[in-house]
Amino acid sequence: MAAAGGTIALAILLALLYARGARGSRHWPAWRTVVFFLGLLVVLAALATQLEQYAYELFSAHMLQHMLLTIVAAPLLLLGAPVLPLLRGLPRGLRRGIFGPVARWYPLRVLLHTVRSPMVAGILYVGGLYFWHIPRVYDAAVEDPLLHSLEHGWYLATALLFWSVVIDPLPFRSTLPHPARIVYLLLAGAAQNTILGGVLAFSSRVFYRHYETSSLAYGIDPLTDQRTGGAIMWVPGDMIFLAGASFAFFAWLRTEEDEQRRREAGT
Question: What residue spans define the domains of the chain?
Fold first, then answer.
């Protein structure tokens, strides 16, 4: 409950700062505000509702929780381009006296540039995905509240890095051209979901000790629960990544058309 209360408080604070910053920005697109708030609501749905309790008892609910954070909340938050509104929403003295110097601090800028590189962001996201599904690690995270919060924080933070490579969250820009973004989403996103989700969906034994009996209270066989969790990762997850690749493809076409028009206008 304490973790849920902290999540709610943080979401409210971010919403207030974003609204204040967006209101003070000329011509800020309303759709960005909407998708950012939707992203916050998805985070709350994952971490501050009854789903948190179900996740302790059902592997499939735990998987749904992780999917909401990594493939729904993260891209929605980034589409809201939160950096500028959040900074502008801060009190002026705090923004200029603390956050401004920190944001200009060279080591921090180097770190952000490094972790947002496609290779590093992909390794952190995919590596974390496999690491947290190691049975002993997974069981420990479910049973230890602090480790469980760390797991959720890792998933959301690395998902934000992963999606930032393809979404261009203002004022940042991706270093990947659009064709490479398509490959990135398919290989580092959909393919990894398919591999791990497929292993879980077609498993013949229960991998996680914590869930060996807890699902029985709901009349669900533990193996069925695990297979359902694998299917949740595999099917909806791949659909999101494929949708992202499709958007990247159409953005690529639009960029090519704009470039062609500029060339024709210059001749």
Answer: 2-266
Distance, CA of 221 to CA of 257 (rounded, Å): 54
Residue type, 61: A
pLDDT digits (tens, 9 = 90+) for 197-219: 999 999 999 999 999 999 999 99
Exposure string for 82-111, b = 16+ CB within 10 A, e = fewer: bebbbbbbbeeeebeeeeeeeeeeeeeeee
Nearest partner of 21 among 78, 102, 80, judged by Cα = 80
Calculate the alpha carbon distances from 51 to 1, 56, 151, 208 in Å: 12, 9, 16, 19
- Helix crossing, 145-167 with 135-143: angle to 10°? 110
Any idea what DSSP says for residue 47?
H
For 145-192, write each residue's pLDDT tens digit: 999 999 999 999 999 999 999 998 777 788 888 899 999 999 999 999
Angle formed by the axes of helices 145-167 and 222-266, to 10°?
20
User: pTM value?
Assistant: 0.91
When pLDDT is cut at 50, 70 and 90, the band that residue 2 belongs to is low
Query: Is residue 261 scored above 80 in pLDDT?
Result: no
Taking only the tens place, the pLDDT of each residue in 51-68 is 999 999 999 999 999 999
Residues 6+ apart with CB under 8 A from 153: none
Q: Nearest to residue 166, comparing CAs of 150, 183, 153, 149?
A: 183
Look up residue 130 and give its two tokens: 């496999």
Residue with structure tokens 């910053």? 21
